[in-house]
Amino acid sequence: MGKYDKILQKIIYGRSDANILFLELRHILLRLDFQERIRGDHHIFTKQGVVEILNIQPLGAMAKAYQVKQVRQIIVRYRLGLDDD
Question: Which burial class, exposed, middle or buried, applies to 47 when counting CB atoms under 10 A from its CB (0-12, 13-18, 19+)?
């Protein structure tokens, strides 16, 4: 299991939302083919076929727990990354 898979599992299981690094969350979204636009410290992610727009900001080096939860909901709802490989 690669680093990408471990981070994705960590996000999906939701046991440690406050312990996800911002760069890891950003990397996951980019690996899932989201398009990124940056405005200040706001990283705005969109993806064709996904209605919701994700807007995440770092809290120091960490991702905000509620934003990790939002990302998890999108991953589960659209089954992103779950059927890969």
Answer: middle
Type of residue numbered 30: L
Q: Please tell me the number of Cα atoms within 13 Å of 11 on its side-chain side.
A: 31
Q: What is the Cα–Cα distance from 51 to 74, expressed in whole angstroms?
A: 10
Architecture of the domain whose range is 3-78? 2-Layer Sandwich (3.30)
56 contacts 11 by C-beta, under 8 angstroms: no
* Secondary structure (3-state) at 53: strand
Per-residue pLDDT tens digits for 20-70: 999 999 999 999 999 999 999 999 999 999 999 999 999 999 999 999 999
User: At 11, phi and psi to the nearest 5?
Assistant: -70, -45
pTM above 0.90, yes or no: yes
